[in-house]
Amino acid sequence: MRIDFHTHILPLDLPDLSGKFGQDRWPVLELKCSCGADIMVSGKLFRKVTDQVWDAEKRIQDMNAEGVDMQVLSPVPVTFSYWAPIDQALYMSSFQNDFIAETVNRHPDKFIGLGTVPLQDLKVAIKEMERCKFELGLAGIEIGTNVNGENLDSPVLLEFFQMAEKWNVPLFIHPWETMAKDRTERHNLMYTVAMPSETALAAASIAWSGVMEKFPDLKICFAHGGGSFPYILPRIDQGWAVWPELRKTSMPPSYYAQKFYFDSLNYDTRNIEYLIDRFGYQKVLMGSDYPFLLREKPPGQVIDDTLNLSDEVKAKLLGGNALRFLNLEL
After folding, report:
1. Which of 155, 78, 95, 165 is nearest to 131 (CA)?
2. Cis check: omega of the bond before 298, within 30 degrees of 0
3. 3-state secondary structure at position 31
């Protein structure tokens, strides 16, 4: 079974919250034709998208053509809206969570859903996570790599991680509001350099801070193969070793990083081999970033091309690990 863990979906009827709430930072979907639209933010083009981003039937056609049995649906990160007043951000989160749950319920043999929560208010975020888990039946939660510039090691977030562990809610961490935005506009470096760097910062913050020591059963998966994190982890460990006054944990960051999961979206068999060698094949989940331009097509190609993997290991990478991470049996 091939399960694409990393895909994004957006409702076609995404409400125009700029008009409703009077702030232009809200993403607005402007339909250009039946097959495509522009995501606009602050009156500027954020991203062009095709109907694949909202049309479940179109997605299923692509899945059948590309040999994918199931997709894990998660929101497009631009909708996280951690900057917004909490009642407005909750409106956006709950609208999407309802839409994803409805899509999964219409096609339970094709889709698994992840929700999102407004992390700028922990009580509201935890309550919405509870609704996603116990009322909507979503399999996990997608969160961003920072909350209004605060890294994920912020003490404010500890209660959220505590409840995610208690309720066994897997977390998918995806870059958003990336670092160095003013230096990565040209060449679309925001997507190719800033996103992997942003993910590395989030992973390093969690590994160094003691979050995994406090909550050892917390399930976390980082997008895009963990970005640059796996490759700079020895340097992070070296920092832990030479600055004992900064230590927050009894063991170096690499010890806690062994608990992390990563999707497979790094395009290169050598990188897949490195992830497996460093963290174990059980911690890598096939993910393509469907339906965006930088996606892997067909999903799982880099795993198929990694020749030294047994069929048993490939089966885990292509689907079995995702099911285990999401606490599912199909």
Report:
1. 95
2. yes
3. strand
What are the pLDDT digits (tens) for 161-178? 999 999 999 999 999 999
Q: Is residue 287 part of a domain?
A: yes
Number of domains within the chain = 1
* Peptide bond just before 291 cis, omega within 30 deg: yes
- Give the list of residues 6+ apart from residue 147 with CB closer than 8 angstroms, or none: 82, 119, 120, 154, 157
Q: What is the pLDDT of residues 283-314, one digit of tens each?
A: 999 999 999 999 999 999 999 999 899 999 99
Residue 313 lies in a domain: yes
Using CA atoms, how far apart are residues 315 and 122, in angstroms rounded to an integer?
38
Model confidence at 81, pLDDT cuts 50, 70, 90, reads very high
Domain-embedded: residue 150: yes
32 is a domain residue: no
The predicted pLDDT at position 23 comes to: 84
Residue 1 pLDDT > 90: yes
CB of 226 closer than 8 Å to CB of 262: yes
The rounded distance, in Å, linking the Cα atoms of 284 and 276 is 7
Residue 27 Rama label (left phi>0; alpha psi -120 to 50; beta): beta
218 pLDDT band (50/70/90 cuts)? very high
What CATH number does the domain containing 134 carry?
Answer: 3.20.20.140
Structure tokens at 159: 């209660």
Here the tokens at position 325 are 């991470």
232: containing domain: 3-8+70-325
Tokens 């913050």 -> residue: 205
203-218: b or e for each residue (b if 16 or more CB lie within 10 Å)?
bbbbbbbbbbeebeeb
pTM: 0.97
Query: What pLDDT is recorded for position 150?
Result: 96
250: left (phi over 0), alpha (psi -120 to 50) or beta: alpha
